[in-house]
Design brief:
- The complex is a heterodimer of chains A (about 110) and B (about 110).
- Chain A is mainly β.
- In chain A, strands 2, 4, 5, 9, 10 and 11 form a six-stranded mixed beta sheet that branches. Chain A has a five-stranded antiparallel beta sheet with strand order 1-3-8-7-6, with no helix packed on it.
- In chain B, the strands form two sheets. In chain B, strands 2, 4, 5, 6, 9, 10 and 11 form a seven-stranded mixed beta sheet that branches. Chain B has a four-stranded antiparallel beta sheet with strand order 1-3-8-7, with no helix packed on it.
- Chain B is built from no helices and eleven strands.
- The chains are: A mainly beta (about 110), B mainly beta (about 110).
- At the A-B interface, strand 4, strand 5, strand 9 and strand 10 of A face strand 4, strand 5, strand 9 and strand 10 of B.
Chain lengths: ~110, ~110
């Protein structure tokens, strides 16, 4: 069974204090790993897709990396506006039955204080 | 461009009542899905559709029905609401399920008393 585990559950950072979020996954063949950002009262907002081990994607202060067992979301010099819950999700390779299905982790809640 | 629109934003039901959560997208996406989000748990897939006239069950389908008569709309029906269905419901769509990111609506917060 596909599983996604995110750690830590919550993270409190000072503005400018860089850190990393972890997403560990077990899946029967990875088609893609997705990172989303979710603000309170809103739907998840797409950040990145990673397809193969060694791949990296960057957007502003965020950088996502992927290995065969986990993904990291690095937040460099965060600002208060980076406060959000960050969700990781995997899509398994396989039959068309898995088309579009995502297995989500529970998320990491990040709070950045000035 | 509105994206994915969900209505209502909030709803309170009594046990046994039925209701329909509406979802519409204006991006001509083939794939649409419904997730529920509960504290401490990841988003869980309820039902999904790969095109008009085609629907299938996700991880937690019991107590919910869906239909897809048009590309744009994908309503979720609660047949007889139960307290266990108290949750935040998200509708999502993508151009193609394979390797395409999901675009989410802003959710419907449902409370069943």
């Amino acid at each position: 069974e596909d599983q996604v585990t995110q750690s830590p559950e919550a993270l409190r950072l000072q503005e400018g204090e860089s850190s990393s979020l972890n997403c560990s996954y077990t899946v029967s063949g990875l088609r893609g790993l997705f990172w989303y950002r979710q603000d309170p009262g809103k739907g998840p907002e797409f950040l990145f897709t990673l397809y193969s081990a060694g791949e990296e994607k960057e957007k502003e202060r965020l950088k996502a990396t992927l290995t065969k067992k986990e993904s990291f979301l690095h937040i460099t010099a965060p600002k208060p506006e980076d406060s959000a819950t960050y969700l990781c999700a995997v899509q398994a390779r396989g039959t068309t039955d898995s088309w579009g299905k995502l297995q989500f982790g529970a998320g990491t809640q990040v709070v950045v204080t000035p | 461009n509105a994206g994915v629109t969900q209505t209502p934003k909030f709803q309170v039901l009594k046990t046994g009542q039925s209701m329909t959560l509406q979802c519409a997208q204006d991006m001509n996406h083939e794939y649409m899905s419904w997730y529920r989000q509960d504290p401490g748990m990841g988003l869980r897939l309820i039902h999904y559709s790969v095109g008009a006239g085609i629907t299938d069950q996700g991880e937690v389908p019991n107590g919910y029905n869906v239909s897809r008569s048009t590309t744009e709309d994908f309503p979720l029906r609660l047949l007889s609401a139960a307290p266990s269905q108290t949750s935040v419901y998200f509708c999502a769509s993508s151009y193609s399920g394979v390797k395409s990111p999901l675009h989410f609506g802003n959710g419907t917060r449902l409370t069943v008393t």
